[in-house]
Amino acid sequence: MKLYTLLFAAAALAAPQRGHKRASVFEWFGSNESGAEFGTNIPGVYGTDYIFPDPSTIATLIDKGMSIFRVQFMMERLVPDSMTGSYDEEYLTNLTTVVNAVTDAGVHAIIDPHNYGRYNGEIISSTSDFQTFWENLAGQFKDNDLAIFDTNNEYNSMDQDLVLELNQAAINGIRAAGATTQYIFVEGNSWTGAWTWVDVNDNMKNLTDPEDKIVYEMHQYLDSDGSGTSETCVSGTIGVERVTDATQWLKDNNKVGILGEYAGGDNDVCRTAVSGMLEYMANNTDVWKGAVWWAAGPWWGDYIFSMEPPDGTAYTGMLDILEPYL
Ligand SMILES: *[C@@H]1O[C@H](CO)[C@@H](O)[C@H](O)[C@H]1NC(C)=O
Ligand SMILES: *[C@@H]1O[C@H](CO)[C@@H](O)[C@H](O)[C@H]1NC(C)=O
Ligand SMILES: *[C@@H]1O[C@H](CO)[C@@H](O)[C@H](O)[C@H]1NC(C)=O
Ligand SMILES: CC(=O)N[C@H]1CO[C@H](CO)[C@@H](O)[C@@H]1O
Known about the structure:
Elements: H1 3-14, E1 28-33, H2 55-64, E2 68-73, H3 75-78, H4 89-104, E3 108-113, E4 118-119, E5 122-123, H5 127-140, E6 147-150, H6 160-176, E7 184-187, H7 197-200, E8 214-221, H8 238-252, E9 257-263, H9 268-282, E10 288-296, H10 313-317, H11 319-322
Helix pairs in contact: 5-6, 8-9
């Protein structure tokens, strides 16, 4: 082999191409991208009530090594008249632009209706409407292998059978749309918390997918009430403690999972707790496929967990503890 060929090959190995997922501990490691779900005004005004994530700051996080982004949006803004109704085409275009910016870079985009199992404030009770919503939406992305469908953000305070049935309806709709290559992230009741998963969401093991690409998305914060509203973590071991039972559940049931939201404040206890949790998950990659920080996005300002480059609190303060997984 000629020297320059060798050098070229060595350089290619040493410097992975921008945007292409590097071999890493986890299959996926990344951040949420907030903005399009912000605000309570419906539909609200772009630029005042809500905003879309910024592809240029996402590119910065991809350069850092992130390989997955969860893109939040609000169902009422996408389909204003009814779950089965037509799109606000501009909102769909803006959402698609962000998703494509991520997937064009060769990494995964999670499409996340950030609706807590509700539409217009009411618990979604029609599984058939929900199935149609997903059949329509998955149809928009069925040729994008790097899109991932997240059935809904944080079902909570709902009938447990209904949560199972809504997830199954979403899976059925997505596959009926001809979207057969994509992963589907399912979420459970009780804000899909890992710490309560086994007690609350055991029936979720009954979900079925003809393509066998279900990933159980759980969320876990490390403050006392697990809500992710305080920058104080309970202890340095709380991360491991809160995901241990869920890990065993995944193993016992032959399932795989992703921590779709987690965070801790920029302080020593939380750094230890987050590092410990990730290390534990990294020890269990047979069931844990990744973790997605909460959250980046253009409007977080000085929010305690902001991963937004260049000066978000977590971007400047916590990225170093995520480094082993990037
Ligand atoms: C979509 O984004 C453009 C800016 O790129 C903005 O002007 C427009 O108002 C947005 N529309 C919606 C519905 O989000
Ligand atoms: C799961 O499915 C099995 C077989 O269909 C059924 O017997 C069982 O009751 C279901 N379990 C739950 C928790 O829904
Ligand atoms: C991960 O595994 C290593 C090697 O077995 C072990 O030393 C370490 O304590 C484990 N970490 C956690 C947090 O479980
Ligand atoms: C912990 C945290 O920040 N949770 C947020 C999840 O997303 C919704 C919508 O953006 C916020 O209202 C929560 O505060």
